[in-house]
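Notebook entry, structure prediction.
Reason for the run: the old model in the group folder had no record of what sequence produced it. Starting over properly, with the input documented here first.
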Amino acid sequence: MNNNQGRSKDVKGFTNAAFVTDGEYNTTTIIRRKSGNANNLQLEAQTVVDGTGNGSNNGGNAGSVGGGGGGGGGGGGSGNGTVNSQLMDFDDILPLIGEFGRYQKLLFLCMIPFAFFVAFVYFSQIFLTLIPDQHWCTVPELSTLPLQERLALSIPRINGEYSNCLMYNVNYTELHEKGVRVADPSWPTVACRHGWSYNTSEIPYSTVATEGNWVCDKAAYPTYAQSIFFLGAICGGLLFGWVADKFGRIPSLIGCNLVGFAAGVTTAFVTNFWQFALMRFFVGFAFDNCFTMMYILEYVGPHYRTFVANMSIAIFFTLASCMLPWMAYYLGNWQLFALVTSAPLILAIFTPFLIPESARWLVSQGKVEKAVSILKRLEKMNGKHVPAETYQIFADNCLKLRQEDNKQDSYSVLDLFKTPRLRRTTLLLIAIWMSISLVFDGHVRNVGSLGLDIFFTFTVACFTEFPADTVLTLILDKFGRRWLACSSMVLSGVFSLLATIVPLGLYSASLAIVGRFFVNISYNIGLQYAAEILPTVVRAQGVAFIHIMGYVATIIAPFVVYLANISPMLPLVILGLLGIAGGLLSLLLPETLDHDLPQTLGDGEEFGRGQSIWDFPCLAKKIDEVDDMEQRPQYFVRSTQNGASLRASTRGLYNPLNTCLTHSIYVWFRSYPLLWSDDDRHFNETLTAIMRPRVVGSDGHKEVRHFITNELKELGFHVETDEFSQIVPVLGNLTFVNLLGIINPEASDFLALACHYDSKYFPDIPNFVGATDSAVPCATLLNTAKTLNSYLLTDFKNRQDLGLMLIFFDGEEAFLSWSKADSIYGSKHLARKLSTSPDNFAKRHIDRIEVLILLDLLGTASQKFYSFYQNTDTLLQELSRIERNLMKGRQLEGHNFMFFSRRIQNTIEDDHLPFLDEDVPILHLIPVPFPKYWHTARDDADSLHWPTIRNFNKIFRIFIYEYVKNHKENVNFRLM
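New structure, fully documented this time:
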């Protein structure tokens, strides 16, 4: 078998460019589709051709790295590489060893102490520096008098309240002897001379701030110390980030916790402000670096990460935060409190015995054996069994990817600012995250200015983390990021402003706490949003940079809270306005839910282009999930211009001519008036008829075959069958029937569109319907024929240069285990039949197939299609062009790119292989990686993503229409 790169067969279609190949072969890797479900899926790679050739520059993308010819990113070299595109990434092997089994649950419990560490490090300084609102100058001469008499005699009133910083400048001994008990307001005043007295009914213990008398002219000291803490967090993040990259995540985790431990314990023994500030600077090193969640999450399957990440904060962090004020209250000593909240950080020395090193870091350092040993430990504890060859494939691929990465260009955060859209997006992310960070930290520290007991208020405010994180876990993947980020920030701002127009006390505190609840939601969305929007090549650096800019904002936050000394309402006004501004800015970001995340800088520049600000993912899903198609709301409205029916999404776009369509885009759309007919009902009815168990030989199989046959006849196709019998494993002798629907059977060449219609035999899954495999592909072919029917039966009919052939292969699936003998029964038989039957054109029937386009595994979100064969690269480029034009015209629903022109140096075993052997050009439209629920019971209607299906169908039918239309005009296209 070869990969046919040396062929030069002509295909008429899209461009007059001619390509000449060197006739040499690159290594082609075959991916065998074996039986099994997601937990026992086995994939093997087999090199089928060795030789030299021109290496591709498509390496580094998951599932796109090839073997020979210098490797999937090299060039001009030779080699015999074998790469399994399904085990290219760490996340690909997690389903095999367990995504959230016993091992991950134990790791989840290991988060408990570290979540407490974060809360202690972050919030403890608040209770170390508390100062009662009621504090006054100490007058030693009046120490024997009751408090109220001392105040009445020695402290002037300002706006009805006793001054915190002034005392009367009089002879108190003389006044006391004369029996004077009330001051004369005309007496001269002076700043406190003998220190201050504090109302211990507010704060029942002395703090470092009260012992140091950080009030009046030193009132900003706690604010300075808090900002210095965040400055330490920035420095610690940079330092221990470098340590993590150089020496590993666990050494970094231990190091930052030990620094925090040493500085926190030393805090208890400081004697002045500068000593305190220096120690808090070093405690800041541990903040945000001492949490293990980011390391533990990589061992948790992608489908559980939202739950684990949010619930660990909701439960453990919230519990620690709510405990903290009462620890300070009942310990009654700030030095003891500093020791109690810092000493637990020493437990980090046990981290290596509890938490494994980051497998991704080990792989990046070439220590694949250690990573595999961790995976084997995880596999054993989860009770899974993964074959040794699977680990070997994973290890080989990791090493190859590392070699690829070393060859690739390096990127820096500066690359985010080199193109206009990406620069705008990055600046928006920075501004939004800074506002979120400032508002969040401002709310945390402003609880003491709300007129209620700070211990109670702080506890209630922190408890809002639990419902906020719980709610977010439930709705984030349903409502999307953009509108949740916007609404939560705006509501936080609104409630903060409302708190300023009600009296201080219960009402203002309640409204401010509601504002805190909403900013908790936006805080947890913020960095995840940034990580999803930024392209992979600069994602880590970009997120780190945005995170640091958030720390810059938190350095400012204590000064915003300090404005309460001017007016208690001023901090809330600023926090409210910033919240509303940050929320509105969020609307300018693209939605990321159900979109493929950008990989390259180019992807990042294009990401979100064509999205409407009014796109609501939840509304789209609600429509998509309606089971009764008769009651499905009309999702498209039709706008007619000069007889051309154009469809536009009703999500705020009723007239396509008013949706930023330029004149050129409009002219392009007008070329396809028949493609915008209402076809949703036909597609859904077709899919419903096909999506049933249809194992070869079953009643369901016969019913689906009859349905497809009748549909083809009704659409005006000449129908032929290729029937044969064969003994297969497990089920014995079966009759297979390939179906062929043909228009223009006497044409010299054919465009062949193909898929298989049988479903996989699973003895333990009798109701397996194979929604993506292959119900949706069958429905797509029939729906394309239906949509193009008026053209096919008029202008296209009776053409001699080109015919259209729809092929529905039978028996694609293996009955026992995928092998050369047990698979693709129908396509092998049909290829033999067509290759041995000469026709009136003095050539074999199979040679009349100009190109075979095979569809498989369609219908899930985030599907990506790549080119597998050099001689059909340009066809995939044409699909990509159509996709981009539709996006520019806003004709795709919440769409991100599906078609990528880069080529994968792998071949996936499928129905096209017998035709490939006969020198037929192949365009294999199968997503890489495979759908999540491939060959599982969950490959049913619930796994489908309707916007993706509609988008694919729209692109595909325009592609087919252009192909057959331009073929008639003899616009030559030579295969590479």
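Summary: Confidence is low (pLDDT under 50) at residues 1-87, 621-678, 970-976.
The old model has been moved to the deprecated folder.
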